[in-house]
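The instructor's notes for this session suggest beginning with a concrete chain rather than abstract definitions. Hand out the sequence below and ask the class to guess, before any prediction is shown, which regions might be ordered.
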Amino acid sequence: MKKMVKKYPFSGRVLFLGMGAVAQNLLSICLKRMDIDWAKVTIIDMKKKEGPDVTEALKRGAKFVAVRIEPGNFEEVISMHAGKGDLIIDLTWNIETLDLLQLIEKIGANYINTSVEVWDPYDRSDKKLHEQTLYHRQMMMRETIGDFCGGKRPTMILDHGANPGMVSHLTKELIKKIWKERRKGVKRPAHFSEAAADLGIRVIHISERDSQKDMTPFDPNTFPNTWSVEGFYEEGTAPAELGYGSHEEGLPHNGLEFSSGPKNEILLRATGYDVQARSWVPSGPITGYIIRHGEAFSISEYLTHKKRGKEYRPTVHYVYCPSEQAQFAIAELDARNYRMLPKTRIMRDEITEGRDELGVMIFGIDPKAKKGERADYGYWYGSTLAIDEAREMTPHHNATTLQVAGAVFGAMIWMIENPEKGILLPDWVDEKGSEQIFGIASEFWAPLEFHKVQWRPEGEGKFLLTDFLEKNGEEESVHRDDFLK
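After discussion, reveal the predicted structure:
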């Protein structure tokens, strides 16, 4: 018997900003799962995009507008295609989020993006090191629009892809699992920060290994990747930054603190491509790049807990082991002192095997461990989506883009059903909403796996950042003056 597929209704207009690999995968989901009038759908990108999903959307009545959105035209272009009660899905990487938020609040639309952006992410000419960080972008937004809070204004969810985004909900789900495992019969505190502190959670890695591969020979002039090459390049050549835990013993040698705001993060005087850390996924231990990501800020801030004058916070950062082809490209970039390669390529139909293991890896030392019970622990929870499984759900796409698109879709549906929650980071969605988003998005992440992890980093068992670091980028930083001013 054919399984019934739930469709979600929406009567307003829908505006897609950007139609890259993730947006096309999201479009594929929407074609199957949204009950909408496609004549009310507009797709905007710098140039006309082709592909089976775009073709089908246009066939159903959607419009494609090929225009480059810039500071001088964004208000006119966006206002023409979206207004009160409509939905804007921003999957671009170079339209300034702060400008968009101010416009969108004015026109009354609902909005979702996967990252906080600026108009020209490569322009570092007059920016100090801390001004190049995501932390700085968050502070600039708060200065202009206030703290991220609810209120009777249109729902606008920021930083909600796979990571940042879905991993914030995964973190909550994993904390619930650890609590159930280690605090049997004890009621969990209402706020997750108190639960994390009680459990002694010290480190949260967003650990990812992408083993998808194709048979295309590597071309030293082409950067292949399973998702946005431009986005990955921008993140990788920016300073590494991470949420820094209260258990850490001083700063790393090249670590720098922020002078204002919640001060929950530090940055390293090294690019993300030059900093590597050890972590774990179900296929085994990995070494990956500490690429800056919004979840390092949002999760570490959300889990900060203050009690009797003491502050608790876990260390939070991304550990990313990209596809083999992408690693070849990063080595080529290194040889060119990170000058971008002339060509890019998204790996899709050419992929022959592999999966994307993406999840939350938590290490902790339980201050309430029972006698005879091991106090230190490790748990992983996440997706092990294989290329064949991804293609069954959305043909012509890969596991990585489906994980991102599925996460956007889950948050998008919640936003449609909750249109007046104000500006939110994923972590600030209430527990019920978080569970709803997780429930919808996890369909596209399955299989989800939960593991008790025996692997530990080297060191004295304190789970310090230095225990996990494979390379801190100090030696390489002397050659990166163009990126680390």
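Then share the key points. The CA atoms of residues 67 and 216 lie 32 Å apart. The two ends are 62 Å apart (CA to CA).
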